[in-house]
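Morning F.,

Quick status update on the modeling queue. The single chain you submitted on Monday has been processed. Sequence for confirmation:
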Amino acid sequence: MATSRVGKTRVTSVSLRAETLEAIRARAGKQGVSAYIEEAVQRQLQREAIDEYIAAAEAEHGTVDAAEVSEKAERVRAYHAAHRRDTPAADAA
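Structure tokens below.
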């Protein structure tokens, strides 16, 4: 998942447990430890932003009904499965 870094970078110091650092080094490969950690932190920031968005939406509109979400997700999956096979599409809405 090597990506080029866009934007200004700064050097910082981060303390990690020795076994965590070794696991990162084993997985980072050619992209390097810094790039690996950058990607991991970016993913975490995205997760936190999504959590905040969901919390704000639920505060405004109420909690989401899990059964309704499952039903709609199944309809979307069925719609996409039908289109991948070039068969007549079921109504996905």
